[in-house]
Amino acid sequence: MQLSKSEEELMNHLWKLEKAFMKDLLDAYPEPKPAPTTVATLLKRMTDKGFVAYTTFGKSREYYPLVKKKTYFSKHVNGLIKDFFNDSASQFASFFTKETNLSKTELEELKKLIDNEIKNR
Question: What is the pTM of this model?
């Protein structure tokens, strides 16, 4: 299951804060901040999807992520590779290196990362 763009933005704030009340989440947004009702709706959807849970303290809820950021984005990237690049990591890498504005230095750093990963396997 995936998050919408606005849910991902909220989830990023929650991942960063680790645990947060509604006020903390609203404070994490830059101006113009979303309405509290908007954030409440997003949190309800994300709870229903199994991404977020909460602990109740009186009338307040402290929200926390149920899914790790690395796990979510790993599935997201693997889904992109499967859906848009015929499940081919090399097609993805080819697109990524040719169609993005990576500098020579960034490409060399990527090459080092790949070389190290090959060495470690």
Answer: 0.76
